[in-house]
Amino acid sequence: MAPSKVSVLGNAILFLSALAGAQEPDIPTLYPQSPPAYPPPIGTGDGIPEWSEAYSKAQAIVAQMTIAEKVNLTSGVGWEGEQCVGNTGSVPRLGIRGLCLQDSPLGIRFGQYSSAFPAGVTIASTWDDGLAYLRGYAMGMEHRGKGVDVQLGPVSGPLGLFPEGGRNWEGGGSDPYLSGIGLAAAVRGIQDAGVIACAKHYIANEQEHFRQAGESRIPVEESLSSNVDDRTMHEVYVWPFADAVRAGVGSIMCSYNQINNSYGCQNSELMNGILKNELGFPGFVMSDWQAQHAGVATALAGLDMAMPGDQVFVSGNAYWGSNLTVAVLNGSVPIWRLDDMATRIMASFYKVGLDKDRVDVNLASWTTDVYGWQHWFARENYGVINGNVDVRGAHATLIREVAAKGTVILKNNGSALPLQKPRQIAVFGSDATDNPKGPNGCPDRGCADGTVAMGWGSGTANFPYLISPLSALQNKAIADGTVIQWVVDDYSTIQMEHTATQASACLVFVKAQAGEGFITVDGNQGDRKNLTLWANGEEVIRTVASNCNNTIVTVHAPGPVTMEEWIDHPNVTAVLYAGLPGQESGNSIVDVLYGLVEPGRLPFTIAKNATDYGVSLMYEPNNSYAPQQNFTSGLLIDYRYFDKNNIEPRFEFGFGLSYTTWKYHDIVVRKINAGSYGAFNGRTPAAKTTNVTETPESLVFPAGFHQVHFYNYPWINNTGDVRKDGENGPEEAYDPNGAPIRPAGGAPGGNPGLYDILYEVNVTLSNVGKRNGEEVVQLYISQGEDDDPVRVLRGFRRVSVNAGQTINVIFTILRRDISRWDTVTQNWVISPAEKQVFVGRSSRDLPLVAKLNGENVIGINRNKPSTSWTAGMKTFM
Ligand SMILES: *[C@@H]1O[C@H](CO)[C@@H](O)[C@H](O)[C@H]1NC(C)=O
Ligand SMILES: *[C@@H]1O[C@H](CO)[C@@H](O)[C@H](O)[C@H]1NC(C)=O
Ligand SMILES: *[C@@H]1O[C@H](CO)[C@@H](O)[C@H](O)[C@H]1NC(C)=O
Ligand SMILES: *[C@@H]1O[C@H](CO)[C@@H](O)[C@H](O)[C@H]1NC(C)=O
Ligand SMILES: *[C@@H]1O[C@H](CO)[C@@H](O)[C@H](O)[C@H]1NC(C)=O
Ligand SMILES: *[C@@H]1O[C@H](CO)[C@@H](O)[C@H](O)[C@H]1NC(C)=O
Ligand SMILES: *[C@@H]1O[C@H](CO)[C@@H](O)[C@H](O)[C@H]1NC(C)=O
Ligand SMILES: *[C@@H]1O[C@H](CO)[C@@H](O)[C@H](O)[C@H]1NC(C)=O
Ligand SMILES: *[C@@H]1O[C@H](CO)[C@@H](O)[C@H](O)[C@H]1NC(C)=O
Ligand SMILES: *[C@@H]1O[C@H](CO)[C@@H](O)[C@H](O)[C@H]1NC(C)=O
């Protein structure tokens, strides 16, 4: 980081205001700049049934804590200081061990005898919030069994603005509504299992390049700034986090990047303002690992927990810990802010029931050995650190089901699929087979050898096994009496040609891979450098298709790949997008290929050309100080950009074929009487302004205390460290009287009126095919103003319907669903433009349409031109 931007106040306190950069002559003037939002709101459980008991308990226990004990809860002990990837200090006097925080959003990173679940992009492709809940619950149970207190997931940032984005696959699809439903379901699942969920990364963390200045191969002084306007922030990026807060999420992780030229973990507008005031978030905010760049500034801006605790990994110093104690003693951080941090942490702790049935930590992140050092970096306290508790339960069945239901059939000509005991099949491509280095042979899965079943980076887990497509297909072939051959060397052209000519079905497996920016694979520094296939994929498809008139292509990839080179090849009879399926990969793809499971739908758009997305991930900095990434596409993420600009995608958002045939019939809209909506009136709680009574002397390390090497403690060495420098944040940050609650605030998730039901939409559909099936009924709304997207997703339901059966699907439309963010009143408003609701099979296949005009309406089926609008049916129902 740039020393010139940092002022050292007192002996040991950093303060970096959101605006400090502008005052330094040697720093370019950067626009835009995030506005300040102070004071930091005090968390409360008042009037929130799911939080009130947890808050009472938290307030009671925090009232008994000393400054050092409270600081301990907020401060990580340092990288590799304990067994989990993140560990806070403890409160031994009150019998509270430190919190164990563990990656990842798809299982237990570094776990043994634990499961490798399908990635976020695959659960999103199921469009099934029930399955998303079950997956969350199963992951939560596994974490809990290992003694993990906080699972570091689920993800909705990145949201997927850039199709190349390295970590998109960890999240839930490139639409805020879809992502929000998935995020909320995962939060409920994880927390019902007794583990605190962590919604991340807050926010606008859309690319890996330059997310951390220190990680960049091209030197920049500060991390990238994602410059996002207020309306886009609310309607796109904050939206899923609002759902997570409403679902009761206990923690949120602030991101590495800057947002409007203020770091995510010291951006007061985003933490104090939007998250804690407007969204009424009662839980705690933790930093991403070394995303904290200041001590006092982060505390005042709303950060509650510093991770992993040291300033950079094993630097031996910390912004908090001892430094936070000093800041509280000299008044730089008000004592009520420290109380609030500790209370928020303990409230989340009680909310998920960690005061009952808490399991001792029995996993080790830094070794697979049973014996090792508890304080790994310091090499202290040798003993059993890996309990190797098997926490997998019966989760394999769920994993297989999720990955199968999250596989999307993009093309299926004639009778290619489902396969029915073919005489001979041939399997092609290294993506069909095992990584010769083993399922966990590449650290943090940082390679693309063998079949790709998860991305790379911290969002991974160890595979307890990995069923490759080839091994599952062999089992199936043997059972069916099918002959099976294969060529898994992507460059053995002659063998592929020869093998392809013999088979009645040629199954080609191709791949792309992506991951976190700290690992570079084949020149891809986290973010993909292109949207084409890896490992000679196009050539493998071409070779096989030239010799086999029934070529079935399966793509394992973290997101979209371009398919134009081969998608229309007459011999390519079927194409499947199989995402990142996790440990049951092969079994899941067999289930889909053979028609045992109904497939999913795309959670993003597959373009004809990478340039069609209308966005450019920044690979070269546009500024050597802090790269500026203007989010100029605004609300038009993914399909919204294609729709607005009339660009024909190859496969649109929401697309996916089914094994049966669906017919949409009728749509009826019923108006529901809801109360009127207005600005919320109220104030955030006033702080309890107790004076600090503990003396600097009482906060010195206890006599004879053994300090673990490079470990972050709450105590001070020297009372001289505490200098009375007084207040050194903005004056408003110290105001104990709270602040007006923002107009759009008032409850977790925002103004309660936003969740009023305004309409009920009743649609009729039939399974007119010969097979029982599952359909994803999708509802989109057009808000009608010129500056609105053409349509936005506002409802979906995965339904199971038997052949020949007709059902009704009822959707509710909330006020939030038809509102837009008004930057002037800082609230959601319903614009005067005429609104319409569309229902159908994808973002571009929407036969049913009805007006949303404040009345009961019978809509039309555009596939049945004889019907017409019938509005104002007052007698209806
Ligand atoms: C803070 O946490 C550390 C590590 O768990 C522990 O050794 C120390 O006793 C704790 N300090 C206080 C004041 O509880
Ligand atoms: C306190 O912060 C200062 C400034 O970053 C740092 O130099 C010092 O090492 C920190 N102290 C501790 C004990 O980590
Ligand atoms: C795209 O990147 C992959 C992975 O690095 C590489 O294998 C492939 O050749 C690249 N495609 C093109 C067209 O350069
Ligand atoms: C399709 O496959 C057949 C072999 O079954 C081959 O003769 C033909 O040339 C292929 N078509 C194309 C366009 O490659
Ligand atoms: C594909 O090729 C096989 C011979 O390999 C032939 O029996 C079959 O009719 C062909 N199918 C089509 C659709 O051309
Ligand atoms: C994609 O679009 C760009 C810009 O319009 C064009 O230069 C390029 O040729 C296109 N690529 C393909 C594969 O069509
Ligand atoms: C980003 O937008 C700001 C206006 O907010 C403009 O001043 C700046 O030049 C833009 N930066 C880039 C790199 O386009
Ligand atoms: C805090 O201390 C000030 C003087 O330093 C005193 O006026 C005030 O009453 C004290 N407040 C409490 C709550 O004890
Ligand atoms: C206290 O002093 C020891 C020895 O000099 C040093 O290693 C440690 O970092 C200091 N701790 C704090 C909190 O200042
Ligand atoms: C939905 O419409 C059907 C008629 O198509 C009707 O039978 C059913 O009661 C309606 N359901 C609701 C909840 O209004």
Account of the 3D structure:
- It is a single chain.
- The chain folds into three domains: 17-28 and 46-355 and 365-388 and 685-734, TIM Barrel (Alpha-Beta Barrel), CATH 3.20.20; 395-604, Glycoside hydrolase family 3 C-terminal domain (Rossmann fold, 3-Layer(aba) Sandwich); 662-674 and 756-871, Sandwich (Immunoglobulin-like), CATH 2.60.40.
- α14 links the parallel β15 (424-428) and β16 (483-487).
- The strands form nine sheets. A six-stranded mixed beta sheet has the order 3-4-5-6-8-11.
- The chain is an alpha/beta fold.
- The protein contains 18 helices and 34 strands.
- α2 packs across α12 (335-351) and α5 runs parallel beside α6.
- Helix content is 21%, strand content 18%.
- The longest helix has 17 residues, at 129-145.
- The protein binds 2-acetamido-2-deoxy-beta-D-glucopyranose (NAG) (10 copies).
- Residues 545-549, 570-571 line the site of one 2-acetamido-2-deoxy-beta-D-glucopyranose.
List the helices and strands and how they pair.
Blueprint: E1 7-9, E2 13-15, H1 20-23, H2 49-62, H3 67-74, E3 86-87, E4 100-102, H4 120-126, H5 129-145, E5 150-151, H6 176-192, E6 196-202, E7 225-227, H7 230-237, H8 239-246, E8 251-254, E9 258-259, E10 262-263, H9 268-278, E11 284-287, H10 296-301, H11 322-329, H12 335-351, E12 371-375, E13 380-384, H13 395-405, E14 408-412, E15 424-428, H14 469-480, E16 483-487, H15 493-502, E17 505-511, E18 520-521, E19 524-525, H16 537-545, E20 551-556, E21 572-577, H17 585-593, E22 628-630, H18 639-644, E23 662-671, E24 757-767, E25 773-782, E26 792-801, E27 806-814, E28 820-822, E29 827-829, E30 835-840, E31 848-852, E32 857-858, E33 860-861, E34 870-871
Parallel strand pairs: 4-5, 5-6, 6-8, 7-9, 7-22, 8-11, 15-16, 15-17, 17-20, 20-21
Antiparallel strand pairs: 1-2, 3-4, 9-10, 12-13, 14-21, 18-19, 23-24, 23-32, 24-27, 25-26, 25-30, 28-29, 30-31, 31-33, 32-34
The structure holds 2-acetamido-2-deoxy-beta-D-glucopyranose (10 copies).
One 2-acetamido-2-deoxy-beta-D-glucopyranose (NAG) binds at residues 690-691.
